[in-house]
Specification:
The structure is a homodimer of 181-residue chains. Chain A has 181 residues and is mainly α. Helices cover 67% and strands 9% of the residues of chain A. In chain A, a hairpin with a 2-residue loop joins strand 1 and strand 2. In chain A, helix 1 packs across helix 4 and helix 2 crosses helix 3. In chain A, 33% of the residues are buried. The model of chain A has no long low-confidence stretch (mean pLDDT 92). The interface between A and B is large, with 58 and 58 residues. The first copy, chain A, binds a DNA duplex (30 and 30 nucleotides) through helix 2, helix 3 and strand 2.
Amino acid sequence: MSLKHAILTLLETEESSGYDLLKQFQSRLGYFWNASHQQIYAQLKTMHADGLIDFHIEAQDNKPDKKIYTLTNAGRDALSDWVRHPLKLGKVNDALLVKLYAGHLADQSQLLEEMKDYRDNHQRMLNTFRAIEDEYRSSTKKEQENLALPYLTLRRGIIGEQACLDWADEVIRFLKGARSR
Amino acid sequence: MSLKHAILTLLETEESSGYDLLKQFQSRLGYFWNASHQQIYAQLKTMHADGLIDFHIEAQDNKPDKKIYTLTNAGRDALSDWVRHPLKLGKVNDALLVKLYAGHLADQSQLLEEMKDYRDNHQRMLNTFRAIEDEYRSSTKKEQENLALPYLTLRRGIIGEQACLDWADEVIRFLKGARSR
DNA sequence: CAACGCTATGCAATTTTTTGCATATGACTT
DNA sequence: AAGTCATATGCAAAAAATTGCATAGCGTTG
């Protein structure tokens, strides 16, 4: 159950609504955590019941009310507890690779289209990450120090996305060659 | 529900027992699919009930009996159906990155240890993949053609693991620097 | 002015995954 | 002789994730 810890981590930096968290997961944290809104709202409810977080309602103009969540002391404790304990290795489940493995059953041109989509998606992600990196690099030294660890997670995104692109290009090159055979 | 398709894919190449599939997932397919034995046996049971696979018992000397599963025609159809339909993007959930993001709450030297473990694990994976690649490269042209697509999935592993190592080195360099500050 | 997308929240049913337990044989170690 | 590891299979309960549905106001686009 690590969505809990991902949420605690975000709230530790900044109080947020469920929707805010969703947006964070969809944008800059997309590389390392994904969760649906249903998952997030349910998790927040549980965590509130468990006393890890508090909330207050914030009314907005022209927009629905928000429930702004903040960490409680118990939440902060749970987070530092978790950070202190070693993780087991994360698991990888990549359906695209399964599909490629069984690719001889598919139409090669269709596979090629799917790989191009894959490449486009990762190019978009890489662009987003690079933009954030530029922002970081042009911030003050003080700010850079404060954000050093989040910056390293961003680096994971950049290095990882670049690897996706390199690989995708290899596959696309192969599939184009195969088409002409 | 893609464990189903991962299993169909493996069985399409070679009939296997649940235990064989587990070993495959743990070794060379570890990069793109992970599943526990409980999950695999349960899934095989469901798939058999759904008529996607058949099995026969194989007695062995000095070892327990095996249930060898093979694809039925319905299974083959289900697999090519799946391969023909586009996927939605896979999601990433990487707890180590969450942890690093919240790393200021942890002991830096402990974080460093964890990153070293991470690096070692990925180095091991990379070595395994490279060994398989060497094997592939020294096989006949005919074999290479037959295994072209699985080879591309292996390439994903190699490129991805190399990216892990590059990133881990960046982080380790940073954490070592931070320790001395 | 109808349709759609964005903000913002949530429930309920189902599916999938995890965790813990269970069994059995043979080989190797202490 | 007892303990552990590898092979080989599985059940059951609990936790987590997915899928489908629902509400509601505001702004934009056709």
